Amino acid sequence: MAITILKGAIVSARSLGKLDITEKGYLVAENGVITGVFPVLPEHYAGAPVEDFGDALILQSFADLHLHAPQYPMLGMGMDLPLLDWLNAYAFPTEARFADPDYARTIYRELAHELISHGTTRVCMFSSLHTDATLILMDELEKAGVTGFVGKVNMDRNNAPGVLEETTEESKQETLRWLEACQDFTHVKPMLTPRFTPSCTDELMAFLGKLAAERDLPVQSHLSENSAEIAWVRQLHPDCRQYWETYAKYGLWNDRTVMAHCVWSDERERKAMRDAGVTVVHCADSNQNICSGVAPVRVMLNEGLKVALGSDIAGGDHLDMFDVVASAIRASKARRMMDGWQTDFLTVPEGWYLGTSAGAAYFGEQPGFAPGNPLHAIVLADDRLPQPHPLTPAERLERCVYRRQPGAVRAVWSDGRKVFSAE
Amino acid sequence: MAITILKGAIVSARSLGKLDITEKGYLVAENGVITGVFPVLPEHYAGAPVEDFGDALILQSFADLHLHAPQYPMLGMGMDLPLLDWLNAYAFPTEARFADPDYARTIYRELAHELISHGTTRVCMFSSLHTDATLILMDELEKAGVTGFVGKVNMDRNNAPGVLEETTEESKQETLRWLEACQDFTHVKPMLTPRFTPSCTDELMAFLGKLAAERDLPVQSHLSENSAEIAWVRQLHPDCRQYWETYAKYGLWNDRTVMAHCVWSDERERKAMRDAGVTVVHCADSNQNICSGVAPVRVMLNEGLKVALGSDIAGGDHLDMFDVVASAIRASKARRMMDGWQTDFLTVPEGWYLGTSAGAAYFGEQPGFAPGNPLHAIVLADDRLPQPHPLTPAERLERCVYRRQPGAVRAVWSDGRKVFSAE
């Protein structure tokens, strides 16, 4: 039996707003599965090797539940444009380059490395419509140690003719070919990915819903990001009272469904998400960058919805989840102001929970370093920063959320395996 | 005569929203003063040495018009607290440590280096109330090549008894002692710095106003940052209709006055700023972090106010002005949403102007790389980033605003001197 013992200042997000802290503690896993966090090493682990990280922070790694891999090359561009213009001017032409497998290999290898070296070990990720590039992406994630779900994008209408398009038949056939090839992967699994309602014909949506049911596949897409988009969906589906119903009517709406944004979801749409157990992915940077709005995260949390965070590159401009957590906190303060100071902002421990435990929950984990969870952890050194006074682990965590520290991530574990070491 | 010639992709902010771009251009200075930007090197410079930076961007360096040097050690901390609690729990105890000159020397040397290596060459900066530490700060800035203004802080009431306090008499005497010693510096000059109205007795304010007039000294302070603060000022100065009048009545309100924040300045207060020629420093990160609000920057610009940017560390959590520009842009999008989509957000070229030319104007410069300006410039390499398509210099600038690139600043000039080189 393989025993992993990490020693350091262990901080985890046990529940929304509540940190568990064990200074000079031991985080122990057997065969990659956490058995506990201990202030003193239990007798029966005596003699097992301990990786002692001294005073460094040992934290849960991140879950990024919404990002577009083929938009990685255009990170931080086109931010003066609104969503639909930005898609046509930047996103579609950039994604189109992934028809070239060599280009895909180069870019996706770099992306996978950047994810792991910044402590993101679980993802729900959009690829492009290209089957081969999607398989290359999954291969690179698998090799780097990133776990989770990836989707070949389906988009058979309102796409970019001559640039990025597929017919309904191509979309179906390629999805089947892709699913066949996905069986090669252990840690990265397929997820059905209609781009968003305006991009998919009814025929294709029906096909994907049937596939989801037959093969027990999870689904990801976009929902109620922007008011122009919502109006467009209403035009396309006059039979649906709300945007979410365009997914629900095809069987794409259940407790394994992940919906990015939900900026404009009203009480009724939020109730539909809660009732179905849909996971909302809040993408604060992206929503603010392309002027979509600021999602009512506090209200969603109060109502009991499942909410996690996404970098949403390249609408979002930060891949590093430390930044994504900080952005979610900052956005919640903007939202507070927009709500006439009526809603509470996200505190640092709350933001941290959303970026770690809340995302991990989608993969079946319990909050924090709970026994039974696969070991997903990062070791973070902050000793190069000045100390204004002796800092508590919670203060140190806060500072690490806000401050960029190149090279501060010392080591990363993903599903029990050590996948990154700064040494 | 010393001639400096820099070759590269030259981008500068000529006016709000308008970039001047000269690819493979020559930026020329004689004795540290810019003579022009040329697509072809003029004949009479033939033979002079050219520093050829290839395809790298050559940009104006930044002006950071509001930051608190002694809060540098607590960067990114206490962000869950509102302004007045945050001052007592974090800012005052942290500043108090600068009674120790050795501590000041260590921290300020690091701060000065971080400013220069990230391309900030002009500042208006708060020190603490400590005269000796303030002189050490000015010395370290001078040595590193940072130019501009620094103020010993005056705060003789409502301070932190036993932690950070000075009597009225001490404040006066120390200010005079400090001003005497400031004559040793060439590029860093003194600026009178009443912390904010609640921190200064009427007697001290009157003293500072008299000093400003007698010695022709500029003034910096805080204005209308937070609604609790504004209510407090009203209580303290029942004779003043608005916050700004508490500065104006003591002669601290003129065209060399710099006022940070102005989040809640209404039309009347804004008119008072415009009429007097006061410079507003917008500190987007700080205002959002400690839930002060989002300043109406677009309205101020439309009304013809002078507006520049400040990192406001450590209410702000980013010292790097690339981030500060991005934050100002993002905040303007939040403000747009708060204004019912009625005000335009700041575009990237507009944000860039505010972080460079608008701040430089306070120091008497013309916008962009105008002939007659002292040479303040940074060379920025972005060749490690992937290219989604062949990028224009404007697109490259946008990406550099949004993306963190450790080590991307290759060289910095400040007032004609090369003060940083990554080699």
Describe how the helices and strands are arranged.
2 copies of one chain form a homodimer.
Chain A: E1 3-15, E2 18-30, E3 33-38, E4 51-60, E5 62-68, H1 83-96, H2 101-117, E6 120-126, H3 131-144, E7 147-151, E8 153-154, H4 168-181, E9 188-190, E10 193-194, H5 202-215, E11 219-223, H6 227-236, H7 243-248, E12 257-261, H8 267-276, E13 279-282, H9 284-289, H10 297-302, E14 306-309, H11 321-338, H12 348-355, H13 357-361, E15 377-380, H14 393-402, E16 409-414, E17 417-421
Parallel strand pairs in A: 1-4, 5-6, 6-7, 7-9, 8-10, 11-12, 12-13, 13-14
Antiparallel strand pairs in A: 1-2, 2-3, 4-15, 15-16, 16-17
Could you name the key traits of this structure?
homodimer; Urease, subunit C, domain 1; TIM Barrel; 36% helix; 24% strand
Characterise this structure:
The structure is a homodimer of 423-residue chains. Chain A folds into two domains: 3-60 and 367-421, Roll (Urease, subunit C, domain 1), CATH 2.30.40; 62-355, TIM Barrel, CATH 3.20.20.140. Helices cover 36% and strands 24% of the residues of chain A. The mean pLDDT of chain A is 96. In chain A, the strands form four sheets. Chain A has a seven-stranded mixed sheet with strand order 3-2-1-4-15-16-17. The first copy, chain A, has a four-stranded parallel sheet with strand order 5-6-7-9. In chain A, strands 11-12-13-14 form a four-stranded parallel sheet. In chain A, helix 2 (101-117) runs parallel beside helix 3 and helix 11 crosses helix 12. Chain A has helices at residues 83-96, 101-117, 131-144, 168-181, 202-215, 227-236, 243-248, 267-276, 284-289, 297-302, 321-338, 348-355, 357-361, 393-402; strands at 3-15, 18-30, 33-38, 51-60, 62-68, 120-126, 147-151, 153-154, 188-190, 193-194, 219-223, 257-261, 279-282, 306-309, 377-380, 409-414, 417-421. The two termini of chain A are 26 Å apart. Chain A is globular, with a radius of gyration of 21 Å. The first copy, chain A, is built from 14 helices and 17 strands. The first copy, chain A, is an alpha/beta fold and 423 residues long. At the A-B interface, helix 1, helix 9, helix 11 and helix 14 of A face helix 1, helix 9, helix 11 and helix 14 of B.
